[in-house]
Specification:
Radius of gyration: 22 Å
Largest sheet: 8 strands, mixed
CATH superfamily of the largest domain: Glycogen Phosphorylase B
Mean pLDDT: 96
Keywords: Transferase
Strand order of the largest sheet: 3-4-2-1-5-6-7-8
Number of helices: 12
Number of domains: 2
Number of strands: 16
CATH topology of the largest domain: Rossmann fold
Strand content: 15-25%
Domain Glycosyl transferase family: 174-312
CATH architecture of the largest domain: 3-Layer(aba) Sandwich
Helix content: 25-40%
Low-confidence stretches: none
Domain Glycosyltransferase subfamily 4-like N-terminal: 19-161
GO molecular function, one term: glycosyltransferase activity
Organism: Halosimplex pelagicum
C-alpha cells in the first residue's frame, strides 16, 4: 500500500507524544513492506528534496515551517505521489485542509491522527480538521470525545490505542523485586504527591517503591520524600530507557498512576503488560482509567488513602512478569487496526 503521511513539523522540530506516535506508525508500516512517504518541512541539510530514515521517505514540502507555502504546495505534491491513503496530523489545521484537497485529487481517503497534545485552537479551521477526514484516529475515548465536540461523528472517529513491544516484555529480565513503581516525567502534571502521601500512610508496613522519571520538579519531590520520612524506602531511578523501564515494571508488584494529564497512559500500559497490578487515581484530564475499566488486576482511587489501600490489596494478586492479556496491544496487533481502517475506507470508495 502507498501511504502519504502529512506532518508539517516532525519530531525534529517539536518532539511531542503525538508526533512520536505518528512517526512510529509510519516506521512500522514501512517495516511491513508498505511504501511510506512523510510530507513535511525539511529537517535535513543540503538541497535534496527527499531523505530516507528507517525505511521511510521524508519529502520536503518547504525548507522551513512556513504554513502558507506548505499549504499551497502540498496538494499538488500529494496528487503527483498518487497515494492509496493520506494520513495527516491536525496541527496546523490548515495543513489538514490542504491534505484533504490533495487526497481528493488523488482519489484517496483521508485519515487524521488526533493525539490530543497538538496546538489546535477553537477556530473554524480546527473544526474543519475534525469534520473533513473520512476517519479520525484518537488514542483514547477522552480525546475522541473532544474531537466529536468539534463536530466529528461517532462513525468518523475511532480509538486506536498506543502499543507495546510484547517481545521486549517477554525477553527482558526483571529488576530486583519491589512492591510498587511509578513512572512519569517529574513536571507540573506529574502529581507525584498523591502517590507519596499514599506511601506515607503505610509507614508501619514493610514496602519498597521506585520512581522512574526526571524533570524540573524532582528536587521538590525528593525533599517531600525526606519530609515524609520515607526516603529510606523510595528510590528515584531518574530517566530510564525502555529496557530499564520494562525491567523495573517486571520487578514490581503494582504500578501507580496519578498524573493530572494523560492523553494515553503509555507507561501504565507497559506496566500492565509486564504483569503489574494497575492502581489509577482518577483525574479529569487523564484517560488512564480507561485502560483498567475491565481489568481484574486493577484498582481505582480518588485520594491518597485509597491509593494506600489499593497498594495493600494488590497483595491479593500473584506476582507476574508478563500478562498475555495485553498482547492485543502489541505493535503488530495495533498496526493491523490501522491497516484495516485503510482497507475499509478504500472499500467504501470502491477502490479495492
Amino acid at each position: 500500500m502507498r501511504v502519504a503521511f502529512v506532518s508539517m513539523e516532525t519530531t525534529h522540530y517539536r518532539d511531542t507524544e503525538g508526533a512520536r506516535r505518528f512517526e512510529r506508525v509510519a516506521r512500522h508500516l514501512a517495516a511491513r513492506g508498505h511504501d511510506v512517504t512523510v510530507f513535511c518541512t525539511q529537517f535535513w541539510e543540503g538541497s535534496d528534496e527527499t531523505v530516507e530514515r528507517d525505511g521511510v521517505t521524508y519529502r520536503g514540502v518547504t525548507i522551513s515551517p512556513a504554513l502558507t507555502s506548505f499549504a499551497v504546495r502540498l496538494p499538488a505534491l500529494l496528487a503527483l505521489f498518487g497515494p492509496d491513503i493520506v494520513h495527516a496530523r491536525p496541527d496546523p489545521p490548515t495543513g489538514v485542509l490542504a491534505a484533504s484537497l490533495g487526497a481528493t485529487v488523488a482519489r484517496a481517503p483521508l485519515v487524521v491522527e488526533w493525539f490530543g497534545d497538538e496546538s489546535v485552537d477553537g477556530s473554524r479551521f480546527a473544526d474543519r480538521a475534525a469534520t473533513l477526514p473520512d476517519m479520525v484516529d484518537t488514542p483514547s475515548e477522552m480525546v475522541r470525545t473532544r474531537v466529536r465536540e468539534r463536530g466529528a461523528t461517532a462513525e468518523t472517529t475511532q480509538v486506536v490505542p498506543e502499543s507495546v513491544d510484547m517481545e521486549t516484555v517477554r525477553e527482558t529480565d526483571p529488576a530486583e523485586e519491589i512492591d510498587v513503581v511509578y513512572a512519569h516525567p517529574l513536571d507540573e502534571s506529574a502529581n507525584l504527591e498523591s502517590f507519596l502521601l499514599g506511601l506515607a500512610e503505610l509507614r508501619d508496613r514493610d514496602w519498597s517503591a521506585t520512581i522512574v522519571g526526571d524533570g524540573p520538579e524532582r528536587e521538590g519531590y525528593e525533599r517531600q520524600v525526606r519530609d515524609l520520612r520515607i526516603d529510606d524506602r523510595v528510590t528515584f531511578a531518574g530517566a530510564c530507557d525502555r529496557a530499564e523501564r520494562v525491567a523495573y515494571y517486571k520487578g514490581a508488584h503494582a504500578f501507580v498512576q496519578t498524573a493530572h494529564r494523560e492523553y494515553f497512559a503509555s507507561e501504565l500500559l507497559w506496566a500492565l503488560a509486564c504483569g503489574c497490578v494497575g492502581i489509577v487515581e482518577y483525574q479529569a484530564e487523564s484517560s488512564a482509567h480507561e485502560l483498567i475499566e475491565e481489568a481484574e488486576r486493577s484498582f481505582r482511587a480518588t485520594d491518597p488513602q485509597q491509593i494506600a489501600d489499593a497498594i495493600v490489596d494488590a497483595g491479593e494478586f500473584e506476582r507476574l512478569t508478563v500478562d498475555e492479556e495485553y498482547a492485543e496491544f502489541d505493535h503488530d496487533a495495533v498496526l493491523e487496526r490501522y491497516l484495516q481502517t485503510y482497507r475499509d475506507l478504500q472499500a467504501d470508495r470502491g477502490l479495492l
